[in-house]
Each structure stands twice: as structure tokens, then as C-alpha cells.
Amino acid sequence: MSLFRGLLAAMFLTLLAYTLVAVNNDGLDLITPALRDLAALGWPGQFHLDFLTYLILSALWIAWRHQFSAAGIALGLVASVGGILFFSAYLLIASFQANGDPTKILLGSQAPD
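User: That's the sequence. What structure does it adopt?
Assistant: C-alpha cells below.
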């Protein structure tokens, strides 16, 4: 579990640093370049579409994990735009709340006792 947690921390810190540099260089407008890449039907657009489907899937899983409660839906919405910056922090916290039990991490409150 410590390797998994280390990986999550490394992902979070790496993407945070990259994001700060990107915002500094290009500003906060990430939608316009993504839409332009999608419209071009090339590999950058394919990557954006692939990532968008990952975001939707992770948002649905998080909302499901919280039994589609108001908090779960709110967390899912954050996940849908937060990417790995949100998801890595979410999983890191969940791993501690579950005392490292993968079943509890995956299923949340729906995990058998």
C-alpha cells in the first residue's frame, strides 16, 4: 500500500507542478485548445477525448462509491474536471480511511464488514 500511496503522491505533485507552469505560460483557458484539437480529428484530439471519457468514468465511480448521495454527486462533479489532481488526492485519503484495505477503497461504505 505504501508504494501505491507514493505513486499517488508523485502523480499529484508532478501534475501540480506541470499545471502551475502551464497556467503561467498559457493562462487558464484549457477549453479552447482542447476543442480545437478535437475538431482537427488528430492524435491530440484523440487524447483529449480519451481523457474526457476517463473523467466521466471516474466521476461516475466516485458518485456510485458514495451511493449517489449529495456529497457523492458533488465529489463526482469535482472529479469530472479535476483529473488526477483530484483523483490522486481522493484515492490517497480513501486509502487511509480504509486502513489500506483495497476492497474498502474500491467499494467505500458498500464494502462488506
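The chain has a mean pLDDT of 93.
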